[in-house]
Design brief:
Order of helices and strands: HHHHHEHEHEEHEEHEHHEEEHEHEH
CATH topology of the largest domain: Aldehyde Dehydrogenase, Chain A, domain 1
Number of domains: 2
Radius of gyration: 21 Å
Number of strands: 12
Shape: globular
Length: about 375
């Protein structure tokens, strides 16, 4: 790893290789049944066999989510925000990444950030998701063999890493913060998405909210775990709007969680509303269990915005209709349209921490 890829060729050529990976992905997504895509289908099948939550549809959704990133125009637009990257990288560093396994290829964004800035990645994958990332890396290396010098998958963290990026639960985050206390790091904790409704939503908009709730069975940090509704909001409108997602209950793991949580609510005498595949319960907490959506009623948006500002460390993003978004444009939390929580851009960083800026700072200090 003495000579870095981005020092050996122009940044535009590195971008070109990621774009070519995107082209292959786009071809697969367009016609996945073609014989030439056998390797893609095999990787998806192996990942599904390894992790029961990773259904083929969920993996395809993840691939569709990252496909726009692997595009020359978006990559150039993203990197243009960092003029320093136009300079030759004379101090390549190695960054170790502890990847989560809650949804397919959740560590891919860190993978791109590190490589495209001219550095080396040493990735420790979750046992729940250690097939798809290696497959994508293999594809990238086939396009540009030099990448192999800068990509490493490890079982144990390297003590020689210049920096650490780790994603996990609130409990594991405490261990990460202690273990990596002497190493520059980004430690990500539990966060969730929330939705704010104002009661004017159309059935189509509620359907889009359903996508934000049920994609990846609600396991992603950008999935909606709680919604805020006006005091007089009729939950029947919400339930009618999400009816098309009823087949989620056919997934045995999801169904088990739904049955378990519903049983606990009944045993504890809690008041809740359900539609045979989602339980909605009024609760002030933002995180919710699988197959459960927390709900809280509000009086006015300004007061709600003030309250949410004090909880921003718990919120990954907010989903709302365009009318609500205009009223909350000063809220210090990313806000997206209903249905867009799982479609972040390259510059929509997890937990609001600019990974590229962090990498460049570490490069300067080494």
């Amino acid at each position: 790893m003495n000579k870095l890829l981005l020092r050996a060729m122009k940044q535009s050529e590195a971008i070109k290789s990621f774009n070519q990976l995107g082209n292959e992905l786009r071809e697969f997504l367009k016609e996945p049944s073609l014989p030439k895509h056998e390797d893609w289908n095999t990787a998806l099948k192996l990942a599904e066999q390894q992790n029961g939550w990773f259904t083929r549809d969920s993996i395809l959704s993840a691939l569709k989510g990252i496909e726009p990133w692997l595009n020359i125009k978006m990559l150039e637009e993203w990197l243009a925000k960092y003029p320093e990257l136009q300079k030759e990288n004379t101090k390549p560093i190695t960054i170790s990444v502890v990847m989560a396994g809650n949804i397919p290829m959740v560590g891919f964004h860190d993978f791109v950030c590190i490589l495209i800035t001219g550095n080396n990645i040493s990735a420790k994958q979750s046992h729940a998701d250690n097939i798809l990332m290696k497959f994508m890396a293999k594809k990238l290396i086939a396009i540009e063999p030099e990448w192999e010098k800068h990509i490493q998958f490890i079982e144990k963290l390297s003590p020689s890493a210049n920096a650490i990026i780790a994603t996990g639960s609130n409990n594991t985050a405490k261990h990460f913060e202690y273990y990596f206390r002497n190493v520059p790091h980004i430690i990500r904790k539990n966060r969730n998405g929330i939705a704010i409704l104002d009661g004017t939503e159309t059935s189509e908009e509620i359907g889009k909210l359903g996508e934000d709730i049920f994609s990846y069975y609600g396991l992603g940090c950008r999935n909606i775990s709680k919604m805020y509704v006006p005091q007089d909001y009729d939950l029947g409108i919400f339930f009618r709007g999400i009816e098309k997602f009823s087949n989620v209950i056919n997934h045995h793991k999801y169904a088990n969680n739904y049955t378990y949580n519903r049983t606990i609510f009944l045993m504890d005498g809690k008041v809740f509303t359900d539609n045979n595949f989602l339980a909605v319960i009024e609760d002030k907490a933002i995180p919710s269990s699988i197959a459960v959506l927390h709900c809280e009623r509000y009086n006015d948006l300004p007061t709600l915005a003030k309250s949410l500002s004090t909880q921003k460390e718990l919120i990954q993003c907010i989903a709302a209709n365009e009318r609500v978004i205009k009223k909350l444009d000063e809220l210090p939390i990313p806000i997206v349209c209903l249905g867009d929580t799982q479609s972040p851009k390259l510059w929509d960083y997890a937990d609001g921490v600019d990974v590229v800026k962090f990498i460049m700072e570490q490069s300067k200090s080494n």
